């Protein structure tokens, strides 16, 4: 594991205020989800998951076909489709449109995909103002931070933290009431909406058979972002496709419930093209950016491509006991929690943070709540094997590998195993039950790490094997 | 002729918690089974598999498959090790014909202890008596990979003198996770303490589980905090009279 990863984890664990904030917020989301998928209110929940998984599998296995169908339908409605391989290409598309429209102000609704490619920073670098309009995103943009959580970007901040941010950045003194804070943000953002030249959104779903972009949200800011400015650009990972509008019946039932415990989010918008003749609202221009940025690499791996089924509900984060301890910012990329742990190594290579797939007790809570049934523990195990293969190739972590080779050698030779375990027991800590310390020469490596948190069981006076033999001899 | 069951006690029970293994054998014998302990058994290989060392895991798994081949039933005092052998062996040997066949032969014959009692021996009341207020900890692999939730609870419900209280976080991980417990010691320890808070809220003095590794993690943290709680393997409770 890298020193940075380790340091961020330690800092989060040591911050008791932050620990409580994470624990309470995720706990709330867990309990809301539990109520929302209860068999009394949603008896078909498990069938829906099976169906969602099957639809996603079918879509991802035939992605080329559905992407082209989607493009045809967007074009037929008078929209534009941009195929982008990289983050730079997305920025170029947006910059090109901004230049043509002489735009200077962009409003944005929440989108993990644009976070993934640092779109705001890239646009600001070229002199454009790009303002996040989701309340949580707006707060963390003011703080120059990354989202802490896929659906709750400011999950780690209390209202007192927000008061501090508003005081520092907006000059509003000591406002700690959430309702008033919302009104302050609303006043600032209203003005931005009215003056914005371009609105950029993400996409929760792209529907192939109707060429539509679907957005779900609770604040109404995405609807304003996509309809008030004259130009709307939706930036979407190319895995966001679903084949038919009717498939939404499956996904919309799962997305809100899994993420926040809502049967439906407050707003669900279907956007299919620019304003047509005779229509009273909608943008003059409608663009969809289809982003690859590593996705085709995942597509090539038949075992792990299910990682692309993710609909970004965040349930795996909320239910992950590790995320609940180490929080979102300990993770090396914008995607945190179990889904982050499986996609980061696939996008950036396993060596980018070799400790990441190991930061899991493999408890499986993530897979249990995943609405599209991604087998996250299985993928983590595969990634672990890939990390070890890389380490072997580069001759690193030799001591650990030697230890496991020794383990395999001994554990496949019963007589040697019996002698070795007997010897180990003799050298183990003395005493009855659990010990708090061991002699200095033993207090190293894994033993030391274990003892940093817990007492250590002393080996039993007699092993099971010995007890069994004595009993049989009787 | 009594039916023969082979027991695979796991390395952790063999070395650290032999009483749990002995208790399991006692319960099985009382139910009329003839218990056999294949002496060549070592470890299921999970430590290597979970750490990413698949070749090493295969070496150990190959040995275990040989040792257990031909057994009518294999009963294991652990959900985690059972799942390794019944689920992950087939994954490990997906490309190796003879081992894959052996893994497929083993899979339907290998049982975690509580499941064996309720599904094969077909008992819920083993005649145990144990005076305590207790709570049951679901171990993750038993719960989520083997789908064992009710079997241990049904067995415990028939233990005379035992009051079972559910904790609010029964299904949350204790934080052990094999090498995770030492690679991410701080996180693992924090998870144990969170679990213990939930245990304390029940007022129970005893924590029961079907996995000794979870109990080692929990007892280690309980002992460090000096709390008056003891951990016990289900087999030890069921063997009490």
Strand content of chain A: 5-15%
Q: In angstroms, what is the radius of gyration of chain A? A: 26 Å
Give the spatial strand order of the biggest sheet of chain B: 2-1-3-4
Major sheet of chain B: 4 strands, parallel
Weakly predicted, low-confidence segments of chain A = none
- Radius of gyration based on Cα positions of chain B: 17 Å
Widest sheet: strand ordering of chain A: 1-10-7-4-2-3
N/C terminus separation of chain B: 26 Å
CATH architecture descriptor text of the largest domain in chain B: 3-Layer(aba) Sandwich
- Number of discrete domains of chain B: 2
**Proportion of beta-strand residues of chain B:** 5-15%
Q: Biggest interface: chains and residue counts?
A: A-B, 67 and 68 residues
Helix tally of chain A?
A: 22
- The average pLDDT value of chain A, as a whole number, equals 96
Give the proportion of residues in helices of chain B: 40-55%
Q: Secondary structure elements and their pairing?
A:
The complex is a heterodimer of chains A (474) and B (241).
Chain A: H1 3-14, H2 16-36, H3 45-61, H4 63-76, E1 80-84, H5 87-100, E2 105-108, H6 112-116, H7 119-125, E3 129-132, H8 135-142, H9 159-170, H10 178-195, E4 198-201, E5 205-207, E6 212-217, H11 221-227, E7 231-237, E8 241-242, H12 248-259, E9 267-271, E10 285-291, H13 295-299, H14 315-318, H15 323-326, H16 337-348, H17 365-369, H18 376-393, H19 398-411, H20 414-427, E11 434-435, H21 445-451, E12 456-457, H22 464-473
Parallel strand pairs in A: 1-10, 2-3, 2-4, 4-7, 5-8, 7-10
Antiparallel strand pairs in A: 5-6, 6-9, 11-12
Chain B: E1 4-7, H1 11-15, H2 18-30, E2 34-36, H3 46-50, H4 54-68, E3 74-76, H5 79-92, H6 97-106, E4 110-112, H7 113-120, E5 129-136, H8 140-145, H9 150-157, E6 160-164, H10 180-183, H11 185-202, E7 206-209, H12 212-225, E8 230-233, H13 234-239
């Amino acid at each position: 594991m890298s020193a940075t990863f380790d340091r961020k984890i330690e800092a989060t664990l040591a911050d008791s205020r932050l620990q409580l904030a994470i624990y309470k917020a995720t706990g709330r989301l867990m309990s809301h989800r539990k109520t929302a998928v209860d068999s009394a209110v949603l008896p078909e929940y498990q069938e829906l998951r099976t169906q969602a998984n099957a639809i996603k599998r079918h879509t991802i296995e035939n992605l080329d076909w559905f992407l082209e169908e989607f493009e045809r339908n967007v074009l037929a409605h008078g929209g534009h489709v941009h195929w982008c391989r990289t983050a730079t290409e997305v920025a170029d598309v947006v910059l090109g449109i901004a230049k043509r429209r002489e735009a200077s102000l962009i409003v944005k609704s929440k989108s993990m995909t644009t976070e993934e490619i640092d779109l705001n920073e890239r646009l600001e670098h070229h002199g454009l103002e790009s303002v996040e309009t989701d309340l949580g995103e707006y707060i963390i943009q003011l703080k120059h931070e990354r989202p802490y959580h896929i659906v709750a970007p400011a999950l780690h901040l209390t209202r007192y933290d927000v008061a501090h941010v508003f005081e520092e950045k907006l000059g509003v003194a000591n406002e700690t009431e959430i309702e008033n804070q919302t009104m302050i943000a609303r006043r600032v953002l209203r003005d931005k909406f009215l003056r914005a030249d371009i609105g950029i959104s993400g996409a929760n779903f792209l529907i192939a058979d109707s060429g539509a972009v679907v957005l779900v949200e609770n604040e109404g800011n995405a609807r304003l972002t996509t309809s008030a400015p004259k130009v709307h650009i939706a930036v979407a990972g190319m895995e966001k496709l679903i084949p038919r509008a009717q498939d939404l019946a499956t996904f919309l039932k799962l997305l809100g419930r899994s993420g926040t415990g809502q049967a439906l989010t407050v707003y669900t918008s279907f956007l299919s093209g620019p304003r047509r003749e005779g229509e009273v609202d909608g943008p003059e221009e409608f663009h969809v950016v289809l982003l690859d940025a590593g996705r085709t690499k995942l597509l090539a791996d038949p075992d792990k491509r299910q990682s692309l089924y993710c609909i970004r509900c965040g349930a795996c984060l909320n239910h992950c006991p590790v995320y609940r301890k180490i929080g979102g910012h300990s993770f090396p990329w914008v995607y945190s929690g179990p889904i982050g742990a499986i996609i980061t190594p696939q996008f950036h290579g396993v060596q980018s943070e070799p400790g990441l797939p190991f930061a899991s007790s493999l408890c499986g809570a993530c897979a249990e709540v995943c609405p599209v049934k991604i087998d996250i523990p299985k993928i983590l195990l595969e990634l672990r094997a890939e990390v070890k293969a890389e380490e072997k190739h580069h001759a690193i972590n030799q001591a650990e590998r030697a230890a496991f080779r020794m383990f395999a050698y001994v554990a496949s030779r019963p007589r040697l195993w019996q002698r070795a375990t007997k010897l180990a027991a003799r050298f183990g800590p003395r005493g009855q039950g659990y010990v708090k310390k061991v002699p200095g020469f033993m207090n190293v490596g894994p033993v030391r790490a274990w003892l940093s948190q817990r007492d250590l069981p002393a080996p039993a006076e007699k092993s099971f094997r010995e007890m069994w033999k004595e009993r049989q001899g009787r | 002729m009594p039916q023969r069951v082979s027991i695979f006690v796991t390395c952790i029970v063999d070395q650290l918690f032999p009483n749990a293994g002995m208790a399991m054998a006692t319960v099985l014998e009382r139910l009329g089974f003839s218990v056999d302990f294949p002496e060549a058994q070592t470890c299921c290989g999970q430590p290597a598999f979970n750490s990413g060392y698949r070749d090493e895991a295969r070496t150990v798994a190959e040995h275990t498959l040989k040792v257990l081949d031909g057994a009518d039933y294999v009963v294991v005092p652990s959900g985690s090790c059972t799942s390794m052998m019944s689920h992950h062996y087939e994954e490990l040997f997906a490309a190796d014909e003879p081992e894959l066949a052996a893994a497929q032969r083993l899979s339907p014959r290998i049982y975690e202890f509580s499941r064996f009692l309720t599904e094969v021996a077909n008992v819920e009341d083993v005649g145990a008596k144990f005076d305590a207020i207790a709570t049951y900890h679901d171990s993750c692999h038993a719960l989520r990979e083997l789908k064992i939730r009710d079997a241990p609870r049904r067995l415990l419900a028939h233990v005379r003198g035992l009051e079972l209280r559910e904790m609010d976080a029964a299904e949350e991980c204790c934080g052990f996770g094999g090498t995770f417990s030492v690679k991410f010691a701080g996180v693992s320890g924090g998870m144990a303490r969170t679990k213990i808070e939930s245990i304390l809220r029940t007022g129970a003095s005893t924590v029961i589980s079907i996995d000794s590794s979870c109990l080692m993690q929990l007892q280690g943290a309980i002992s460090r905090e000096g709390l008056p709680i003891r951990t016990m393997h289900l087999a030890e409770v069921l063997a009490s009279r």
